[in-house]
Design a protein that fits this description.
The chain has helices spanning 11-54, 65-76, 91-117, 119-131, 145-156, 173-178, 191-196, 212-225, 238-247, 256-269, 302-308, 344-354, and strands at 138-141, 161-165, 183-185, 204-207, 230-235, 252-255, 273-279, 282-290, 312-318, 321-324, 337-343. By secondary structure, it is α/β, with parallel strands linked by helices. It has 3 domains: 13-117, Orthogonal Bundle (Helix Hairpins), CATH 1.10.287; 131-255, Rossmann fold (3-Layer(aba) Sandwich); 270-354, Alpha-Beta Plaits. The protein has a 6-stranded parallel beta sheet, sandwiched between helices. Strands 7-8-11-9-10 form a 5-stranded antiparallel beta sheet. α9 links the parallel β5 and β6. α1 (11-54) crosses α2. The longest helix has 44 residues, at 11-54.
Length: 356
């Protein structure tokens, strides 16, 4: 568990992905050096071939190619393994190889220092390399307050998550990364960015930025790249929400105001309500009650309460022990806390019976 309360993927999965990401990141870095490296290898091998074909070593036969290449390599560091040649056409080689070799090495060192100094850009490439190793995962677009809460819940349920956040100064960026979540700082409306996090192999994409048009564009791009991907879309405009669900076959599209409205309205009706949501046209409440002294609920079994009130008991807490989906034979005592799923009318009736 990290200090931010986020739990990342298991250790074994992190190790496997880390190795795969290291290989891909190495391939990315290799592109920075391949011309310099190829030139150096060509110079050593070419010089070695010339020495093996034309260089007469005093007192022995011609050099094999491997020894010729080794001789060329020693020349780079001004430590020749063999005497200065008597052949006039090989003498320039003994001057050029050190100069060219040291020049290529110097260029490589400059490139390496540039990479170290520009570590932030390399960090982004590392996260992109890590993200590309995921498959059958969930892509989360947007790490604002809602996106971060979504991420917390996904990690609690041990889902594999890759995040995309446009703002490099996002306050939740470091918390997400410290939990082992690859976060690519880029614009998710670009198809190339979605491809970099393997949207083609993803199971679900959750789009939770605060821009309706950007969210819709991301959803359509994701569907183009992966027709079977499940799309969970956040929209503020409820009129647009209905049209999107129908026209573009978006399985789930949530309006923030539509989600928040029932919660605010129900919370004003009862202090026991913790969450509200609609099932078709029926508003259901998740409510929490602490059994008060002299409550008519005390001493009754959960089956007794379910016969009296149309509800489902989600959990009961007795002291420090909490039981999820308890048996109907469980008895309710004073100071126990029960969480139920019921309509608002039922919640009010339970509250009245409890003496609240």
């Amino acid at each position: 568990m990290t200090s931010s309360g986020l739990r990342g993927p298991s250790f074994a999965r992190r190790v496997v992905r880390h190795i795969r990401a290291q290989l891909r990141f190495f391939a990315v870095l290799l592109t920075e050096f391949w011309i310099t490296l190829a030139a150096f290898v060509f110079m050593v091998c070419g010089s070695g071939w010339l020495l093996s074909r034309f260089y007469d070593v005093p007192g022995q036969e011609r050099l094999p190619f491997v020894e010729g290449a080794y001789a060329a390599l020693t020349l780079v560091f001004f430590q020749p393994a063999y005497p200065f040649p008597s052949e006039w056409y090989l003498r320039p080689l003994f001057f050029l190889v050190p100069l060219v070799g040291l020049g290529l090495l110097a260029e490589g060192i400059v490139r390496f220092v540039s990479i170290v100094i520009n570590h932030e850009a390399r960090l982004e490439e590392w996260h992109m390399a890590m993200a590309s190793t995921y498959s059958d995962h969930i892509i989360l677009c947007g790490l604002g307050r809602i996106g971060y809460r979504v991420l917390q819940q996904l990690l609690r349920t041990k889902e594999d998550v890759v995040a995309i956040e446009k703002n490099k100064d996002c306050v939740f960026l470091e918390d997400a990364r410290s939990a082992g979540v690859p976060v690519v700082v880029a614009d998710p409306t670009r198809e190339a960015v979605l491809e970099s996090v393997n949207v083609a192999g993803a199971r679900t994409i959750i789009i939770a930025t605060d821009d309706d048009l950007a969210n819709l564009e991301i959803a359509l791009d994701a569907r183009d790249l992966n027709p079977s991907i499940r799309v969970v879309l956040r929209l503020f405009n409820e009129a647009l929400l209905a049209k999107v669900k129908k026209a573009f076959n978006i399985q789930i599209a949530f309006s923030t105001s539509a989600l928040a409205g029932p919660v605010f309205a129900s919370a004003s009706a009862s202090k026991a309500i913790r969450q509200s949501f609609f099932v078709d046209d029926t508003l259901l409440e998740v409510a929490e009650f602490t059994v008060l002294p002299r409550s008519s609920l005390a001493g009754k079994t959960l089956n007794d309460l379910k016969e009296r009130f149309p509800m489902r008991v989600i959990s009961i807490a007795t002291g420090k022990e909490q039981k999820l989906f308890p048996r109907g034979s469980e008895k309710v005592a004073e100071d126990d806390t029960i969480v139920v799923l019921a309509t608002l009318e039922t919640v009010k009736a339970i509250e009245a019976a409890n003496g609240g």
